[in-house]
Structures are given as structure tokens and as C-alpha cells.
Specification:
- The chain is an alpha+beta fold.
- The chain contains 7 helices and 4 strands; from the N terminus they run E-H-H-E-H-H-E-H-H-E-H.
- The longest helix has 11 residues.
- The site of inosine-5'-diphosphate (IDP) has 9 residues, from loops.
């Protein structure tokens, strides 16, 4: 089963939206296999967003993501990476579909509530950046067969 990393960003934590964001991911049937609230260091932020180092918004992004705690989760499900990306909505909340997390809760690219890994490869890398193997729990839920056939 596929796993992906989600960060509930500082804007969502400050706005009291942690529960609403997690609720939507749970409603999608995703299983939470790890969860913690942390303050991201500048070093971790720069590593996590290394692909954007040369972008004009990089400095603001690092400053935003380190400005207040985030909630980090590892979610498991069938095609979890794509499922989470579609549940999040487009990067720019003003273009995100209504019904998506960003489309319903945000306005601005620099305050877009949630991060989700963009491929299974980056998910593996990001999960190991935020969690150690022992933090990830394997468990069955009685309703798993009502969410995923097989
Ligand atoms: P994603 O979060 O949807 O994967 P990425 O392109 O990976 O989007 O960008 C990472 C994060 O950088 C975005 O979630 C957003 O917070 C920020 N970002 C991206 N583009 C811009 C921009 O043009 N202005 C301000 N912030 C941006
Ligand atoms: Mg991205």
C-alpha cells in the first residue's frame, strides 16, 4: 500500500483548521500511520524545499514554514500520493477546485494550508526526512475492506 507525507502548514495551525484538514483526509479513507506536531527548523525547511531554492518566493516560503508549528502525517492508501494531491487541490488556492482543501480554505499561494508529496519517490524521501521507521505504525482497521476492495 502506498504512503505519502502531509504537512498541515502554519497558516492552518494558526487558524484552528488542523481538525478540519485531518477530517477530510480521514473521510477519503486514508489511514494515519504517523502523526506529530513539530516546529520545522530552517535547515529542515531548506532541505524540504530544495527544489525551489532559486525561486523568488523561496525566502518567504522558508520563513513561513518555520514561523509556527506544523502537523506532519504519514498517510496510507491505494494510490495515496495522487489521492492526497487531489484532495488538497491546486497549488494556487484561487484556482483550486471547490471541495478541495485549498479550494475551500485558502486564497493565496503563499498561505495554502497543506503540503503533500508529489510522487511515490519524493514521498519515500520526505517520509524519511520527517519520521524514523519506528514512528510508522502497521495496523489494520476493521473497516479497511469497506474502503479498498481485495
Ligand atoms: P505544491 O505545494 O502544490 O506541491 P510546489 O510547486 O511544490 O507546490 O511549491 C511548494 C510551495 O511553495 C507551495 O505549496 C507554496 O506554498 C509555495 N509556492 C509555490 N509557488 C509560489 C508562488 O508563486 N508564490 C508564493 N509561494 C509559492
Ligand atoms: Mg510540491
Amino acid at each position: 500500500m502506498e504512503r505519502t507525507l502531509v504537512l498541515i502548514k502554519p497558516d492552518a495551525v494558526q487558524r484552528g483548521l488542523i481538525g478540519q484538514v485531518i477530517t477530510r483526509l480521514e473521510y477519503r479513507g486514508l489511514k494515519i500511520v504517523a502523526l506529530k506536531i513539530i516546529r520545522i527548523s530552517e535547515e529542515l525547511a531548506e532541505e524540504h524545499y530544495a527544489a525551489h531554492t532559486d525561486k523568488p518566493f523561496f525566502k518567504g516560503l522558508v520563513s513561513f514554514i518555520t514561523s509556527s508549528p506544523v502537523v506532519a502525517l504519514v498517510l496510507e492508501g491505494k494510490g495515496a500520493v495522487g489521492l492526497v494531491r487531489r484532495t488538497m487541490g491546486a497549488t494556487d488556492p484561487s484556482q483550486a477546485d471547490l471541495g478541495s482543501i485549498r479550494g475551500d480554505f485558502a486564497q493565496d499561494m503563499g498561505r495554502n494550508i497543506i503540503h503533500g508529496s508529489d510522487s511515490p519517490e519524493s514521498a519515500r524521501e520526505e517520509i524519511s526526512r520527517f519520521f524514523s521507521d519506528g514512528d510508522l505504525l502497521d495496523y489494520d482497521r476493521d473497516l479497511d475492506g469497506w474502503i479498498i476492495e481485495s
